[in-house]
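pls design
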């Protein structure tokens, strides 16, 4: 069973789309980092 589930997440800042239809499951024994092209998170 997933500790966290995300489905079809999208985020924009004005005309800049930073995520588009992202889905994921985070299991209890996993760690997750989302890092952009310049290393920012």
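designed seq:
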């Amino acid at each position: 069973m997933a500790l966290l589930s995300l489905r079809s997440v999208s985020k924009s800042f004005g005309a800049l789309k930073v995520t588009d239809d992202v889905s994921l499951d985070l299991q209890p024994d996993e760690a997750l980092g989302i890092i952009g092209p310049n290393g920012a998170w």
